[in-house]
Amino acid sequence: MSMATGVPTEVVWHEAECGGYIADLGLWEELAAAADGPVLDLGCGTGRVALHLARRGYEVVGVDRDAALIEALRERADGLPARGAVGDARELDLGAEFACVIAPMQLIQLLADEAERLACLRTIATHLSRGAVAALAIVEDVEAEDAGATYAPWAWKSRPTEVPLPDTREVDGVVYSSLPLPTIVDDGALLVRRLRQVVSLEGLLSEEENTIELRELSAAQLEREGAAVGLEPLPHRSVPPTDDHVGSTVVVLRKAAG
């Protein structure tokens, strides 16, 4: 979908759909405070979490595959202890170790299968200092009888009857609207769908459907995969649901201190 502003489209949509989410920030801040050193934020986007932590004095490196998102992070990090790097979490080599690695917003479920998750977990283990922890947010507990059903992504468990308002942004007079559509649960995946609409400066409307596929994954399975690369599980943490967003389980894995 084209646009008539100087801001990259992927930055606008990322900000509209993810930038306002704050329910998990307290947990990432708590983990950063407990860590004795810098934090690595995987799938950082434009810096929603990384910049939040940096504003509180924590040193953060954010990694994302999308160069436009990383450039936006770098521009916004002016004077803050945060930097961005373009890279793939499955094959990353920053040449540094971190006191904490975080993967918010179900990053690990964007990967296609166990082989890709193991590659990501090996990357995490390589970048963790000894005794340090990684924390990965996932959505789980989608019941088997729900396979093939559709229901709202903002409430996979509570399923309210009220549909939320679209997320919107205005950039240089162009209006961007992203409306959550019913999520499809089928064949081992959650298909999170949004209707993206753009109203141009001339008042013309264009629209397209955007779908993100999250692979179904339980905390127990992710812990087993973590153990396969030498990471031991710690008690889960959680991010509570809000009126607009489903809650998350946060799997915590530690690299052995010895």
Protein architecture, described:
The structure is a single chain. With 258 residues, the chain is α/β, with parallel strands linked by helices. The protein has two domains: 9-141 and 217-255, Rossmann fold (3-Layer(aba) Sandwich), CATH 3.40.50; 144-213, no CATH class. It is 24% helix and 34% strand. The chain is built from six helices and 13 strands. It has a seven-stranded mixed β-sheet, with helices on both faces. A hairpin with a 2-residue loop joins strand 7 (167-171) and strand 8. It is globular.
Give the H and E element order: HHEHEHEEHEEEEEEEHEE
Q: Considering the protein shown, what is the CATH homologous superfamily of the largest domain? A: Vaccinia Virus protein VP39
Q: How does the major sheet shape up?
A: 7 strands, mixed
Based on CA inertia axes, which overall geometry fits? globular
Mean pLDDT over the residues: 89
Number of domains as seen in the coordinates: 2
Brief digest:
This protein has helices at residues 9-18, 25-34, 48-55, 67-76, 114-127, 219-228, and strands at 39-42, 60-64, 82-86, 98-103, 128-138, 150-151, 167-171, 174-180, 183-186, 189-199, 205-215, 231-239, 248-255.
Secondary structure elements and pairings:
Blueprint: H1 9-18, H2 25-34, E1 39-42, H3 48-55, E2 60-64, H4 67-76, E3 82-86, E4 98-103, H5 114-127, E5 128-138, E6 150-151, E7 167-171, E8 174-180, E9 183-186, E10 189-199, E11 205-215, H6 219-228, E12 231-239, E13 248-255
Parallel strand pairs: 1-2, 1-4, 2-3, 4-5
Antiparallel strand pairs: 5-13, 6-9, 7-8, 8-10, 9-10, 10-11, 12-13
Helix pairs in contact: 5-6
